[in-house]
Design brief:
With 352 residues, the protein is an alpha/beta fold. It is 36% helix and 20% strand. The strands form 3 sheets. A 5-stranded mixed β-barrel has the order 7-12-11-8-13, surrounded by 4 helices. The chain has a two-stranded antiparallel ribbon with strand order 1-2. The protein binds 1,4-anhydro-D-erythro-pent-1-enitol and uracil (URA).
C-alpha cells in the first residue's frame, strides 16, 4: 500500500529519495535552490495555458489582496541588468542563452530586461526559466502556465508536485483556469468541472506504462468544485463535465480545420450526445488533470470559461477585449476563493 500523507497526498514516487539532486528541468530550478524558502508556504497553485495569463493573474492577485510578490534571482542583491547589446550578434547570443539556458549573465537576456522593468514597477517577475512555462508567486499562491494539451500539462504537474514536495509544502490545492468551447452554454459562462471526460465521452484518461494501457478515473473534488462555484457572484457559471481533446480542431469535431473527416450532421449528433452525458464544455487538459490529481490525492478544480457555444459554431470571433473579459471570470472566482480561505485561516490563527 502506498503511503498516504496526513493532507491526503499519495502515490509519491519513492525513487525520489535516492536522487542527490533533482533537476526540475522544464521549470529551470533544482533541489540546490532554496525551494523551502521560496515555496514552503504554498497552499494554492493556479495553472493556466498561457504565460501572459499567469502573469496577469499574479498581478491581479497582488493588486486585489496585497499579498507580496516573491522574487527569485541568482544575481547578487541590487545588481541591475543592463540591456544594451553592442550589436545584433550579442543580442542573438543573449536571447539564445535565455532560451537554451547556457551559463551566461542573465542581465544580458531578454528575460533580464523584462524582469528589471517588472521589478521596478512592483509587478510579478518569473521564478525559474520561461522557455516552456512561466511561474510566478504571490503570497501563498503560485500562478503558472502549462502550455496547451495534456502532455504539456502533465510534465508541468509532475515538476510542480515534486517542487512542492521538496519545499515541504502541505495541504495545497491545484486549479486550472482555462478557456473552452461551451456546450449549450454561452460565451463568458464558467464551467466548474465535476469530472474530466475523454473524447469518447467516458470519464477516464488513458496512459501507457510501460507501453501497457492504464485507465485512470478523472473525478474532481466535489466539495471544492461547489466552493469555487459559490464564489461566482454575478458571473454566469455551471457545474458540469469537461471534455478534453488532443486537438483544437479534429478531436473537438470542428468543421474548420485544415482537414475535416465529418459532416455537419455528424458533428451536431456528436456534440449533442456529449451534452446528454452532462458535458458542458470542451478543452484540452481536464481529463489528464483530473486523473493526475485524483491519483496523487491532491484536491483540484478545473474552472474554464466558454469562449463560444459550440452548438452554434466553431470560430472564436470575439475581440481581444472581450476575450480578456471572459478570461477574467474564472480568475475572479479563484481570487475570491483564495481570499475566503485566507480569512478563515486568519480567524483560526486568532482563535488558537
Ligand atoms: C483551451 O484553449 C487552448 C486551445 O486554444 C487549450 O489549451 C485549451 O484547453
Ligand atoms: N479552447 C478549446 O480547446 N476549445 C475551444 O473551443 C475554445 C478554447
Amino acid at each position: 500500500m502506498a503511503e498516504v500523507r496526513q493532507d491526503g497526498l499519495k502515490n509519491l514516487n519513492p525513487n525520489l529519495a535516492d536522487l542527490d539532486v533533482d533537476v526540475l528541468y522544464h521549470l529551470g530550478l533544482t533541489t540546490l535552490d532554496d525551494l523551502k524558502g521560496l515555496f514552503g508556504d504554498v497552499k494554492h497553485v493556479a495553472m493556466m495555458g498561457s504565460g501572459m495569463r499567469a502573469w496577469d493573474f499574479a498581478a491581479k492577485l497582488h493588486e486585489q489582496t496585497g499579498m507580496p510578490i516573491t522574487r527569485f534571482s541568482r544575481l547578487p542583491e541590487g545588481d541591475e541588468p543592463s540591456y544594451q547589446f553592442a550589436d545584433i550578434t550579442q543580442a542573438k547570443t543573449a536571447v539564445s542563452a535565455a532560451v537554451y539556458g547556457d551559463e551566461m549573465d542573465p542581465r544580458q537576456t531578454a528575460d533580464g530586461v523584462r524582469n528589471f522593468m517588472y521589478q521596478k514597477n512592483d509587478l510579478p517577475t518569473p521564478i525559474g526559466k520561461t522557455e516552456r512555462y512561466e511561474m510566478y508567486k504571490v503570497g501563498n499562491t503560485i500562478a503558472i502556465s502549462h502550455g496547451m494539451g495534456q502532455p504539456s500539462h502533465s510534465i508541468n504537474l509532475h515538476e510542480v508536485t515534486k517542487l512542492l514536495q521538496y519545499a515541504g509544502a502541505q495541504g495545497y490545492q491545484y486549479y486550472r483556469l482555462g478557456t473552452s468551447g461551451g456546450l449549450g452554454v454561452e460565451a463568458g459562462t464558467v464551467v466548474v468541472a465535476n469530472r474530466g471526460h475523454n473524447p469518447t465521452g467516458e470519464a477516464s484518461y488513458k496512459i501507457h506504462v510501460p507501453g501497457k494501457q492504464i485507465e485512470l478515473p478523472t473525478e474532481f473534488d466535489p466539495a471544492l468544485a461547489q466552493e469555487i462555484f459559490d464564489c461566482r457572484d454575478q458571473i454566469e457559471a455551471v457545474i458540469g463535465g469537461t471534455m478534453a481533446a488532443d486537438d483544437f480542431y479534429t478531436e473537438q469535431a470542428r468543421l474548420d480545420g485544415a482537414f475535416c473527416m465529418i459532416t455537419a450532421a455528424e458533428k451536431d449528433e456528436y456534440l449533442r450526445a456529449l451534452y446528454a452525458k452532462g458535458i458542458r464544455n470542451i478543452e484540452m487538459e481536464a481529463a489528464g488533470f483530473g486523473a493526475f490529481c485524483q491519483h496523487m490525492g491532491i484536491p483540484a478544480a478545473c474552472i474554464c470559461v466558454a469562449l463560444l457555444n459550440r452548438l452554434k459554431g466553431d470560430q472564436v470571433t470575439s475581440s481581444t477585449e472581450q476575450l480578456a473579459a471572459y478570461s477574467d471570470n474564472p480568475q475572479q472566482m479563484l481570487i475570491r476563493y483564495i481570499q475566503k480561505k485566507a480569512a478563515v485561516a486568519e480567524e483560526e490563527a486568532g482563535v488558537a
